[in-house]
Amino acid sequence: MEALLISVPYVSNAFICLQAASVNIIVGSHVWVEDPVLAWIDGKVIRINGQEVHVRTATGKMVVKEIPKVFPKDTEAPPGGVDDMTKLSYLHEPGVLQNLATRYELNEIYTYTGNILIAINPFQRLPHLYDSHMMEQYRGAALGELSPHVFAVADVAYRAMINEGKSNSILVSGESGAGKTETTKMLMRYLAYLGGRSGVEGRTVEQQVLESNPVLEAFGNAKTIRNNNSSRFGKFVEIQFDKSRRISGAAIRTYLLERSRVCQISDPERNYHCFYLLCSAPPEVREKYKLGDPKCFHYLNQSNCYELDGVDDSHEYLAIRRAMDIVGISEEEQEAIFRVVAAILHLGNIAFAKGKEIDSSVIKDEKSRFHLSMTAELLMCDAKSLEDALIRRVMVTPEEVITRTLDPDSALGSRDALAKTTYSRLFDWIVEKINISIGQDPNSKSIIGVLDIYGFESFKHNSFEQFCINFTNEKLQQHFNQHVFKMEQEEYTKEEINWSYIEFVDNQDVLDLIEKVFNLKADKFKLLQKPGGIIALLDEACMFPKSTHETFAQKMYQTFAKNKRFTKPKLSRTSFAISHYAGEVTYQADLFLEKNKDYVVAEHQDLLTASKCPFVAGLFPRLPEESSKSSKFSSIGSGFKGVLEAIRISCAGYPTRRSFYEFLVRFGVLAPEVLDGNYDDKVACVMILDKMGLKGYEIGKTKVFLRAGQMAELDAKRAEVLGNAAKKIQRQIRTYIAHKEFVSLRKAAIQLQSCWRGMLACKLYEQLRQEAAALKIQKHFRRYVARKSYITMRSSAITLQTGLRAMSACSEYRFRKQTKAAITIQAHLRRHRAYSYYRSIQKAVIVSQCGWRRRVARKELRVLKMAARETGALKEAKDKLEKRVEELTWRLQLEKRLRVFFI
Known about the structure:
- It is a single chain.
- This protein has a 7-stranded mixed β-sheet. Strands 5-4-3-2-6 form a 5-stranded antiparallel β-sheet, with no helix packed on it. It has a 3-stranded antiparallel β-sheet with strand order 21-22-23.
- By secondary structure, it is of the alpha+beta class.
- Helix 5 crosses helix 6 and helix 9 packs antiparallel against helix 10.
- The protein is built from 25 helices and 26 strands.
- A hairpin with a 2-residue loop joins strand 7 and strand 8.
- It is flat, with a radius of gyration of 52 Å.
- Among the domains are: 147 residues, Methane Monooxygenase Hydroxylase, Chain G, domain 1; 55 residues, Alpha-Beta Plaits, CATH 3.30.70; 192 residues.
- The N and C termini lie far apart (110 Å).
- The longest helix is centred in the last third of the chain and has 161 residues.
- Belongs to the TRAFAC class myosin-kinesin ATPase superfamily. Myosin family. Plant myosin class XI subfamily.
């Protein structure tokens, strides 16, 4: 479970507070003890030997603990936990954790701690908790009237702004994955719901504020190990309200963008979302910027994670373009933004190799030169100038200008520095553009600020970014201490009420260690410089060109050797540890000087300022802001200490206070006789409180101080008194109205009864007449039905007979038709058989005749040939015979044709 703390402005607490009392541990007591696996486990005390307590845990294991490490368990705690942890009987870590865990198992992710809301990330969507119906329920509801909810916090801030006319802030803090970003969205959504009003060009201010979230997330959020949409920057949203308490403007400020993520990511994290969205853009967009698969780019392929579960980057790209339209970023500006994003991707693919000269470098290969030319084209600058800016440095001395080449490693560092600076400037421009588009109201009467910022961080390797983040959290913790702890107790002392001073953890000494400035102290005739904090030493080191991280670290070791918050790790020459409010963090000072200077390389500045693209040139008018953190982290889970302190001070203190006049104006109705008497305001307040039977309150010089929950009790009784008075007035009015209505109704009833009796007589006559008519109708109807039934049956019988006769006739007709057809078939069959026999006889005769004639002709031909040999006179006969043969041959062929024809 990840915990999220939301701090709200000072308001009346609506809870009854149960103070923790010291509890003696005895044999048989149920207690909590530390467990290496479960953190805490409950058990039962078996034996006590002096300061040692023998406890049998719930798992049956026997452990021995010292009395200070044994905490009593509340066996009578509600099974579902309490919604406000100031109600806990025992205020200690295991009790608070158990309460949070119990509620979490029941899907109750929100729990109050006085005026603080603790949220446990459910790691799932719970839309029913944040719909419009839920917002309507919490609208105007007192804190504590409904279940703990983030909407209640926002509503309290809004109502306090309306009632007291003062600006308010809501602090959202927690470690990565705790749900800070989603909670901030819900807060802004609810505030937009309360104070929405139409803006310019049909777009509402609140709509622009809400739509700025996906734009900022696209360019400022990334996947980390614990969170798929982790904000890598801090954000303060200032929502401005006019005199009618409607949203009139807004401003967004960002802090500590993690610039190093642009160039360095670890598996399985991702770079900023915008890079992947652009790589999933429509084909024509990718072709225009010469982009492809994310695996092809060095700044993206350092991790094997390229996609998020349940997220379609191509759809998200289109959604981001629509969100940009809503927040007022023009089409041309959007194109310029994605040109810069694409340029950064190409820039990351530029590699370097050793040059011919010592400590020099050149572009490694043609692939790198292609990406160099693409980067220059997208940034609209000269490719040669870009190359020189990456591999050369110019040093100006009073005597001359020296150009120095960079080795490949330094050139890579120069490349990454340019990428980080460009992306940081782009992000700042987007934020500024959103602010300009939304518009700030200079005449706003009040504001509500929502701060979403990192919690304390501790990496395996902690550098200047973590130092700045943790310093910020120390300042926030001190601010929290001052308002919840110090100012509370100072107020009690000022009012001279009975108050037992409560010790709390004060982190002022940590802040002095970090940010204390140099002081000059006069000592006779010379000034002695008193040591400042780490930041002062760092600034001093940055002013000396010969300073290194080793000299800076040695200076810290000497200056803070006796500071209990500062320690030097063993076997380290540059590391140092600070005991923060949340725990000890070890920092590596290797890059502190470089990151503290945080300047833009002159060559990079000159290159991009000279860009032919006005958008790119406009990104570099001033020095960049601080860079942010770089590596994956495991947070220190001890922001919890602040929760325990808040619980303790809330229960022991007086979170509600009102001046005597305000108290009498509000609660005078509870004791009218006190207001009627001539009493001093202070005395009158005491009389009212005594009449109400409240205990534990205090009366100061000018104010009434109430325990947690007492204000709610007085409000409930006040509401009861006002409700009873309203009921009396309503009762009299209802009596008058009821009597008047009775007289009118009685008169009307008499007239109505007369008319009704006449109507009944007419109705009875009509009924009798209708019954007589009905009898006649029934008689005629029955006759009609019987005759109709007879006619129907007769018609059916005739129809049936006709059908049967028709069937018989049809059957006879078919039989005769079939007989006639059979005779016809037989006749044709006999004729066919006779004709076939005749044709066969005819064919045989013809064949015989032809054979015989051919035989006779051949015989005659032989005789003629013999005669022709004997005499020439026979020539004529020969010719005749030949002619005869031809004639016979023709006739034979004719007979063959006829035979073939007849066959």
